[in-house]
Structure formats: C-alpha cells, structure tokens
Write a structure and sequence with these properties.
Helix content: 25-40%
Radius of gyration: 18 Å
CATH architecture: 3-Layer(aba) Sandwich
Order of helices and strands: EEEHEHHEHEHEHHEEHH
CATH class: Alpha Beta
Number of domains: 1
Number of strands: 9
Shape: globular
CATH superfamily: SGNH hydrolase
Oligomer: single chain
Distance between the termini: 17 Å
Largest sheet: 5 strands, parallel
Structural class: alpha/beta
Amino acid sequence: MKRLLLPSLLFVAGLTAAEAPRILLAGDSTMAPKPLDLPERGWGMALGAFFQPGVDVRNHAMNGRSTRSFIDEGRWQKLLTETRPGDFVIIQFGHNDEKTEDPKRGTDPATTFPANLRRFVRDVRAKQATPILATPVCRRKFDRAGQLTMTHGAYPDAIRRVAAEEQVALLELELATARWLRATGDEASRKFFMWIEPGAHPKIPEGRKDDTHFVEAGAAKVAALAVTEIRATQPKLAAWLK
C-alpha cells in the first residue's frame, strides 16, 4: 500500500505508516447508510471522504436503533467480531433511547443508557481498539420565535459523564450541530434535511418534512463537524485526515 504519511510519522494508532486505520461506526439513522436511490443520507456515509485513501470506514449504524436494541439484535456483537487492535469505534446514540414508551428501545439516562455506553467502551478496549463517544446530533426544531429547541433531554449529559469517567474522547456533535443550525436559521437550514417538495422525488411523491434526517448536503456538513471534533480530540486518527 502507498505510504500516506511523512517518514517521521512512523506509527499511527499502533499501525505502521503503510497500514491505514479502520473506523467502525455504531449508531442510529442519523449516522446510518441509506439506499442510494433515495435522497436521505446518514453522516457516517460522508465521513470516509475526509480521510486519506486506504482508511476503511465500516458503518454498522442502523435506522431506529438505541443502545438497547443495538445490543439485543446482535449488532454490537457483530461489530465487535470485526474489531481489530488499532481500530477506532465511534459510538453515537440517544435519539431512540429517548423513546422510553418502547420497551425494546427506551433506556433510562440515569441507569441503563450509561451502563450500555460503559459496556461499549470496555468491550472496544478489550479488543485493543479505541472507543470514541459522540453526543447525538440536534433535531432541526425551531420555536415560533425562531429559537432552536434542544430535544435530547438528559441523554447528552449522560454521554458526557461516561466519557469523562471512562476517559474516552468525546465528539460534541449536539453542541456543534446546535451552533450550525442557529447560525443557519430556520428556513435556510431546511435544505440540509429531508424537506422534500411534493413531486420532487419519484419515490416520495407526496413530499416530506423531516427535521431529523439529512440529505447529502446535511450529512456532509455533519461529517465535517465530526472531523473538526476528531482533530481536537483524537490526534492519532486526525493524522489520517486529508
């Protein structure tokens, strides 16, 4: 494989300079891969474009999953089976853990949610890989006064506490996406989300107004915000960015 870094950088994330790292993603629909014949995109789909050739991004995120269902359906075990020493595992949940009325998905931000996150962190470390936690991206929810409403309740703070207690890098995506949405504004931010006009897409003839999920431009923007966080918190992985 072509050498990607300067000769002085002989080791990155425990790998030789001739071996690019792998990044595994665990999360929900805001991160997940989507069918390419639809306009929706998860930000994990855009992440690989920011890295040098050879960096392998493996997106295990799945629509509608919480920490609970990701474990119960065997998705976490599948990811762990693929995880090798030197890998990086980015973990972003919260949107569906909040659905406490659903016994298959809901978790308690004071108990079961942080317990699941700690399990993820310790399982990844047992594989001699690097866990990275991420707070959930903001929903695009503006009130009548044009102010952004934060919708994730106690879940982001639970992630922050686990990151601090376990000494794990944190990608602060909730605050980063909140700053972006506030700066962009209510109407202008719609173009980044699944606001599809009726008749604009053959597979969504009635149109859609979805303030949670991204189109390609939104996914790319959130991936860029994640990369800014990676540069600030994970120098070994950041060395492989373009």
